[in-house]
Amino acid sequence: MAIKIAILASGRGSNFLAILNEINAGRCNAEIKVLITNNPEAPAIEIAKKNSIPVEFIDRTKFKKREEMDDYIKLLLDKYKTELVVLAGYMLILKGKSLLEAYRNRIINIHPALLPAFKGEDAQKQAFDAGVKISGVTIHFVDETLDGGPIIYQEAVDISDCNSAEETAAKILKVEHKAYAKVVDSFSKGAYVLKGRRTQFINFPIKK
Ligand code: GRF
C-alpha cells in the first residue's frame, strides 16, 4: 500500500516535485494527499495544481498564536488521513504540542547540511563560509528542537570544488532530490524505531 503523505512547503517546491516525479516513475511508494502552505505565492502551489493535488493555505495572520495555527495544521493532516508529514522547505518551526505529539516520529524534514552542523537557515552558506570540504544532506524526524530530531538518513556531498554558497546549494540540492524520495519510500516498507536518538529501520511485519 502506498503511504499517504502531506507535503508542507513555503517556497519553490523542488523537493516536492522530485518526490512527485519519483512517485510517478514508480520508484516511491507514496501518494501525496495534500500540499499545505503558509505562502500564497509559493511556486509549490502551481506544482500541486498542475498535478491535481489539493492545496490548503494556512494564513498566519488568522491565528493569535503559532500553536493555534499548528492545531489547525493537525486538523488538516487528520482530514487527509495523513500517515507521513513531509516538510519540504517549510519555513516555520512547528510549535504545536498536539501536532507534534499526535504525529510523533511521523513528521520528517530535509536539511541541506550534515546535522548537527549548520542548523537553521542558509545551511549551505554557513558550510561554504566555514570552509568545510564535506557537507551534505540530513533527513530527520521533527521534534520540539530546531533541526534537532533523531536522524534518519545522511549523505555526504563533497563541496571542495564549489566556488560560492549558491554552487554549494545547487550541488547539495541534487542529492536532496534523490534522497528524500528514497526515505519516503522506505516508510511504506517498514518503520523507523528509535533506540535513544538512534533510528533503526525495521521491515514489515514489525515483531512486537
Ligand atoms: C531545501 O534546500 C531544503 O533542504 C530546505 O529548504 C530547501 C527547500 O527547497 N529545508 P525546495 O522548496 O524543496 O526547492
Element pattern in H and E = EHEHEHEHEHEEHEE
Average of pLDDT: 96
Total domains, how many? 1
Q: Could you tell me which ligands this complex binds, including any ions or cofactors?
A: 5-O-phosphono-beta-D-ribofuranosylamine
Quick one: overall form? globular
Number of helices: 6
Can you put this structure into words, describing what you see?
This protein has a single domain (3-203), classed as Formyl transferase, N-terminal domain (Rossmann fold). With 208 residues, the protein is an alpha/beta fold. The two termini are 21 Å apart. The mean pLDDT is 96. It has helices at 14-24, 43-50, 66-79, 97-102, 123-130, 165-187; strands spanning 3-8, 30-37, 55-57, 84-87, 107-111, 134-141, 151-158, 190-195, 198-203. The chain is built from six helices and nine strands; from the N terminus they run βαβαβαβαβαββαββ. Helix content is 34%, strand content 26%. The strands form two sheets. It has a seven-stranded mixed sheet, sandwiched between helices. Strands 8-9 form a two-stranded antiparallel ribbon. The relative contact order is 0.15. One of its GO terms (biological process) is 'de novo' IMP biosynthetic process.
Outline of the structure:
This protein is of the alpha/beta class. The chain is 34% helix and 26% strand. The site of 5-O-phosphono-beta-D-ribofuranosylamine has 14 residues, from α1, β5 and α6.
Write the layout of secondary structure elements.
Elements: E1 3-8, H1 14-24, E2 30-37, H2 43-50, E3 55-57, H3 66-79, E4 84-87, H4 97-102, E5 107-111, H5 123-130, E6 134-141, E7 151-158, H6 165-187, E8 190-195, E9 198-203
Parallel strand pairs: 1-2, 1-4, 2-3, 4-5
Antiparallel strand pairs: 5-6, 6-7, 8-9
The structure holds 5-O-phosphono-beta-D-ribofuranosylamine.
5-O-phosphono-beta-D-ribofuranosylamine (GRF) binds next to helix 1, strand 5 and helix 6.
Pfam family, one: Formyl_trans_N
GO cellular component, one term: cytosol
Protein name: phosphoribosylglycinamide formyltransferase 1
